[in-house]
Amino acid sequence: MWRPAQKIKWKPQPGEWPTADEAARARLFSPLDVGPLHLRTRTWVPAMVPWRATDDGFVTQDNVDWYARFAAGRPGALVLEATGIRDIASGPLLRIGHARFIPGLRRIVDAVREASAGQTRLFIQLIDFLSIRRRPDPQKFLGRYLRLTDRHRAALAMHGASDTTVREQLQRLAPDELAQVLTPRELENLTMGERERVTDLHLPHIRALPQVLPGLFATAARHAREAGFDGIELHYAHAYTMASFLSAVNDRDDGYGRSLDGRLRLPLEVYQAVRAAVGDDCVVGCRYLADECIRGGSGVDEAAHFGLAFARAGMDFLSLSRGGKFDDAQQPDIGWAAYPYTGRSGYECMPHHVSDAQGPFGRNVQAATTIRNAIRAQGLCTPVVVAGGVHGFAQAEALLADGHADVVGFARQSLADPDWFTKVRSGHGSAVDLCIYANYCEALDEKHEEVTCKLWDRVALDEPGIRKTRDGKRRLTPRPWPPKD
Ligand SMILES: Cc1cc2nc3c(=O)[nH]c(=O)nc-3n(C[C@H](O)[C@H](O)[C@H](O)COP(=O)(O)O)c2cc1C
Question: Do 42 and 89 reside in the same domain of the chain?
Fold first, then answer.
């Protein structure tokens, strides 16, 4: 994991907690009504993948319990984890690309309604991602998978040699010699694992993405509507397909890359297809990057341009994240896939408590302000959601009072304590279990293990009836609050 050089250790700084009266007057707990977006409070739980789906993408009881547990804390909005729009195998990630997934998703909708007494709006994050392979064993890669070309034979001065002889020679080369013989992309396939990009126009299915994706997103959105979700969050952030279209490194030459308008074209076409599928009364917004945080990537000025375009197109909210790219991900171990939260951009996405002088709290606030101001300057009132290290009431309230955002996202803090919202609102802020930003949850996500929090996952393991991780060592949800005993 990348860490800032300064390695300054930060502790949570929640500040003062409000009394129940003060909380009742707070902006944070006031409603938001803009277009079809109606929130009872301006609090938001951003999408977090908990690795609880079946291997073929269906909802499990553990998914239902997980979201019901968040809903019991009554945030204004809860966003269901990134859910795949394609009807293809993608491991234990939720899927929505076929009607057979609707009944399971409906169970989550019902559980959230019940646990929050109808107070929490439930959105679903729709994602498309491209294929990524695990980092291969070098001997197997060079001995079997690498497609031999004349270029390899020329570089090795082995014209006319058999494939077997060429492969054996490649297997004998030192890493610096291999770097001379393989193309940069082949070298990356060897050292990081093969990863498709939206710019691989030589691959027909990649070239066809602009023709295929609007329909796939629209079908998924229709399924979400049928399952009863209050709205759709299009995943245009981090390392995935739609963010890669927006990226400054997208140099597609087919009208869907290069210029700002080219990079925006597919995200807008997807939005229009989704809007047409679900109608004007359904909430549709997106999550995208206020800054890609990679060399040569798009920064806040481009993000402001995108935000304005999304707002003009009619999106109902813009949820801002930052970083989280494959471009600067660290090398995975052999047999593991690259994880887009291991480089500097990953740090910016989920900052750890070991940080720099700026610290891990509110790193996206300045960029969010620039984007929001650009949208407001054009007379548009699209709500902006900001997240990143928010855990204190005063901090959240100031984000709203000072015009940095309209809604405040608490991701890891609500994982640490889903009752943050009820506790603070009822004047029990001092009972909040504060996130320490140690990224225990993120490490579990990286290993595709059930995500839990170290503040609560080994507490009262003998409690009757609780559900546990596959290895039986951790509980899957925190204890209820107030405690029943
Ligand atoms: C375990 C875990 C899973 C996550 N999964 C998603 C996801 O599915 N979609 C997404 O947009 N962000 C995801 N994120 C990022 C969070 O939504 C959030 O942007 C990030 O943690 C920073 O906010 P925070 O400081 O409040 O945690 C995930 C974060 C964690 C810790």
Answer: yes
Cα separation of 127 and 270, whole Å? Answer: 12
Domain assignment of residue 333, yes or no: yes
Domain membership of residue 413 as a residue range: 8-133+201-446
CA dihedral 231, 302, 84, 234 (to 10 degrees): 10
Sorted by sequence, the CB contacts under 8 Å of residue 465 that are 6+ apart come out as none
Write out residues with Cβ below 6 Å of ligand 1.
46-49, 81-82, 125, 235, 237, 287, 321, 349-350, 387-390, 409-413, 441-442, 445, 451
Supply the pTM of this predicted model: 0.98
Provide the β-strand partners of residue 434.
Answer: none
pLDDT profile of the chain (485 residues), mean per 10: 95 97 98 98 98 97 98 98 95 96 98 98 98 97 96 94 96 95 97 98 98 98 98 98 98 98 98 98 98 97 98 98 97 96 97 97 98 98 98 98 98 98 98 98 96 98 96 97 77
To test ligand 1's pocket by mutation, which of 43, 49, 241 has the most ligand atoms within 8 angstroms of CB? 49
